[in-house]
Specification:
The protein is mostly helical and 280 residues long. The chain has nine helices and no strands. GO terms for molecular function: antiporter activity; xenobiotic transmembrane transporter activity.
């Protein structure tokens, strides 16, 4: 049998094939680098929007946890009453107001994308009117918490303290009218830094004041709830100052009577959003 002849060197690729292979490899590497850069850029943009929202939600629920932790040092009855009011009463009212404020997010996003910047301020004022009216409508639930709990057969020791806590919660509930709407308004313009700073500020202040009120000055329930009220209103005043004094020159041009127009349609949209969130 004849031995097969194997050449010592493989034949060289033609120059045209070499050019095609090198260009194909370069294109693949460029595509991979381009994809990686796009992923990093999209991730950065995502966290620029989601990060402040996460901090705000963390701060909002963190205030409740801090209050509950310090009230637990006061007594079991106070802790049970606070848990009852914050879990049932406050969650319901906050859910309604947050859901109604989410309609503002849709309207502001559409107007900002369409470059109708002046409409954002009008939508914001219109939401204040609608949400404040709904908050006032929910006030009887807070004012008559004790009789309501008696009707539901709650323990007498708990409903007496729960009625007091519900009264303390009225300013906290009213702050949500401005807090949620201002957040939606600012996030639509990607002005997220101010929201993040104020969220960390009110969280730290509430932690400090609650510790001082319970551990140092022994103010009891009034000290913790007073600290909570101060903490929730700090972001509201901070965001209002930011908006009113030049933070949003394109979208805030002052108060306008146009905010009172089309209140019926805006109320329907807000109410449907609120009901949807409560059901979820």
């Amino acid at each position: 049998m004849e031995k097969s002849k194997v050449p010592l060197l493989e034949p060289a690729w033609p120059p045209a094939d070499i050019d095609r292979r090198s260009s194909a490899g370069g294109d693949e590497s460029e595509k991979e680098e381009g994809l990686g850069q796009r992923l990093v850029e999209e991730n950065r943009k995502l966290w620029a929007v989601a990060g402040p929202s996460i901090c705000t939600r963390f701060s909002t629920f963190g205030l409740t946890i801090i209050s509950q932790a310090f009230i637990g040092h006061i007594g079991p009855t106070e802790l049970a009453a606070y848990a009852l009011v914050s879990t049932v009463l406050m969650r319901f009212s906050i859910g309604v107001l947050m859901g109604m404020a989410s309609a503002l997010e849709t309207l502001c996003g559409q107007s900002y994308g369409a470059k109708q910047y002046h409409m954002l301020g009008i939508y914001l004022q219109r939401s204040w009117i609608i949400l404040f009216a709904c908050a006032v409508a929910m006030l009887p639930i807070y004012l008559f918490t004790s009789p309501l709990l008696v009707f539901l057969g709650q323990d007498p020791a708990i409903f007496a303290v729960a009625g007091t806590i519900a009264l303390w919660y009225i300013p906290i509930m009213l702050s949500s009218v401005w807090s949620y709407t201002l957040q939606m308004y600012l996030q639509a313009q990607s002005k997220n830094a101010i929201i993040t700073y104020l969220a960390f500020l009110n969280f730290g202040i509430h932690l400090l004041l609650s510790w001082l009120a319970t551990a140092r000055f022994h103010l009891g329930l009034a000290g913790v709830m007073g600290s909570n009220i101060i903490a929730v209103w700090i972001p509201v005043f901070g965001q209002l100052v930011f908006v009113f004094f030049g933070g949003c020159p394109q979208t805030w041009t002052g108060f306008s009577s146009a905010a009172f127009a089309d209140l019926g349609a805006a109320f329907k949209l807000s109410m449907s959003s609120g009901v949807m969130l409560c059901i979820e």
